[in-house]
Amino acid sequence: MDTDILTASSPREDAPVDASTIAAASAARLAHLDELEAESIHIIREAVAEADNPVLLYSIGKDSSVLLHLARKAFYPAKLPLPLLHIDTTWKFREMIAFRDALAHQLDLRLIVHINRDGLARGINPIGSGSALHTDVMKTQSLRQALDQHRFDAALGGARRDEEKSRAKERIFSFRNAHHLWDPKRQRPEPWRIYNARKRDGESFRIFPLSNWTENDIWSYIERERIAVVPLYFAAPRPVVERDDMLIMVDDDRLPLKPGERPQIKMVRFRTLGCYPLTGAIESSARTVPEIVRETRQSRYSERRGRVIDGDGAASMERKKQEGYF
Amino acid sequence: MNAHSQPAALAAGPRARQQRAKRLLRFIACGSVDHGKSTLIGRLLFEANQLFEDQLDALAADSRKLGSQGGELDYSLLLDGLAAEREQKITIDVAYRFFATDRRKFIVVDAPGHEQYTANMATGASAADLALVVVAANDGLTRQSKRHLVILSLLGIRNVVLAINKMDRVGWSRQAFMAVDAEFRAFAAGLGIDDIVSIPVAAKSGDNVVRRSPHTAWHDGPTLLDALEAAEPAILQPGPLRMPIQLVNRPDADFRGYSGLIVSGAVHIGMMVRLLPSGRVTRVARIVTFDGDLESAEAGRSVTLTFTDEVDASRGDLVAGVDQAPSASDRILARVFWIGDRALGPGQRYLLKLATSTATASVEPQLRVLDLDSRGLVEAPTIAPNEIGTCTLRLNRAIAAEPYAACRETGSFILIDPETFDTVAMGCIEQIPQSRSATLKSSSRRQFARWTETHARSLAKAMSWRTTGGIDTFVVTFVISGSTKIAGSVALADVVTKILIHYLHERVWALVPWGKR
Ligand SMILES: Nc1nc2c(ncn2[C@@H]2O[C@H](COP(=O)(O)OP(=O)(O)OP(=O)(O)O)[C@@H](O)[C@H]2O)c(=O)[nH]1
Ligand SMILES: [Mg+2]
After folding, report:
1. A41 near B302, Cβ under 8 Å?
2. ipTM computed for the complex
3. Which of B183, B226, B242, B375 could pair covalently with B190 via S-S, beta carbons 3.0-4.6 A apart?
4. Which residues 234-293 of A are in CB contact (within 8 Å) with B?
């Protein structure tokens, strides 16, 4: 059962084309991936060497999957010297949770799942409370709670600079004060590969080993390394409703249907994963990693288009980050 | 969009393709405040079809709300992503953008021009192969343009594309273009920046960015994108092995590996390496990776090495080729770009971080500061914020270091304020001066190393000693026996057998460290 989830989710197209042509065409690309891999491993090792109590933020998405894979490479043959932390909002897709638990079991990982119990008790949810409040309480506050509770002083995450304008401005070792706040106007200079990881008690770092990867690099690497990802990334017939120009998947019976609304079965997949009522699907027929690579290369839209939370305002990501959001 | 979907190139076969596929180019856009860097990069992304539709929609909406162009698209908003930047209409920190054309992949760093944020520009420049320097034609070379050029030169960047921007503001005048070009070349010449391609552009309207401008018929050089695609920045020559140790990998008692990124040279199984600062020599047993052991590994790879001997090495140590290992030194002469809030002065103490090692550094007297106008170094009591100068640092322990020109990764460092933990300087090593204690340490290290004597030397010593001894044996035997024949054969046998015995004796003692100082 476990192995099923993990292997079935990473289908591969066996290339029938002339092998030498393919090899030549992808030589430059592979060299590029090798360089990115080596750089990320270097960052992960620096983070763990410099921190007292590091943690890997695992969101179950494709970037986290790549980050976890690189972290395992960084410390091989030793086991992963840091635990995984998942901030569970209780509204993730069911397939995500199943994948997470199967993976942790199969790879024998230390996994911490944190839920903001206080927020849950207050009944905060993405539908009634609105995406902004839900994200703040169940993700941002929840992450801060977890980091404080376990006294983690370095949190490694899979964010990339190509995702969004304020991320494009962030350092690889991103300093946070004792209140988890990011000050974009006073970032530490970070020349060459030298990271200044000095800090006082209570202060911490968010560390981004995938800073220089693009969405395309991520998928090419997933293909090359045969990394398992959640099946929701691959096109399949799924029940969806159309809302505000977005296709929302009816993942369980908590999604209230509006009068006259009936779930339709459509061939869809997801470019990013989050809380299901806030994550838009795209119509697609890409069932394999190579097909996804091709699709993202031709896409006319950025990957963040499918996220409700980003639409809350132009500077919303920066504000959320300043408040301690990942 | 992508090099790999170009059928003509594919058909030409592997070799032709490899020649055509250009290396990734990392470049930084820099220059004086408001000369149009962000607008130029934004326009470049737009013209080269690098923007998604939702990004264009957001740009149109942002331009209406925040733009300085009266509702027209303000391309700088594609780069200036921080709220404070959008409000103040300036760039504060570097933005990283990734794009690819049919011919090449690019990483572009858009730097702030404002003097207050020069450290951020230097951060972005440290990883660049080439600089796109933007100078507004109606303003010319400013002090800040010059400062950026000096920083490029400090960091060893020799290739420049000079975009002379806002040509619309000078009536597309060739004379205005030539004047800026001449002034720029004259200033850059003294800095070792020798590869310069100049292009007249107007970022706002996109003239000569990707499309050739109808206003500059007199320009026979490339457009901006052409120049970036064609650029061939100097590749650093492959140097000797350097791998700073990041951590010791010890999952159980049977395995002890040393993990790091190979920053220069290559390593192979069986290779003799020197560990620094100890000077200890050992042999590579395995090159371990998650994907299986390697026979050899080159610069740019992250690996874990094991050695044939039990060695005492840890984070901060350096694995180097035996012959061309750098020296371990506790004094360095460096060129520094000072970014601290207070000036750098003699006697001050900082934490120095070089590759993976950290030491305490104190500043020796005799500082020199670079004069922006003459480009010469002049003696000064302190190095002020945003100035570049030279200083000698004394460290509390010897670390492996070498000139920046020899190896960037083992020749560059940062200084950290021990109280605020701010990064206060970027440094490039010019020279490792020989201090008395450093010489002493390195010579004592040599005595400790195994096989410090070559076989030839052991043999030569044995021969010279035995020849002296042979003469003595001859004289003594002659005095006792009175026969030159007996004395001669005894002395000869003595010389020959004892040279051999002495040689072996020497070799055995060479292995014993006991009693050496
Ligand atoms: N007339 C004219 N104005 C331009 C041109 N390019 C840029 N500008 C204007 O120059 C101003 C500064 O542009 P930016 O792109 O923000 O300048 P910058 O160099 O990025 O500034 P900093 O990052 O703060 O140093 C803006 O008002 C632009 O519209 C041009 O080609 N012609
Ligand atoms: Mg700018």
Report:
1. yes
2. 0.86
3. B375
4. none
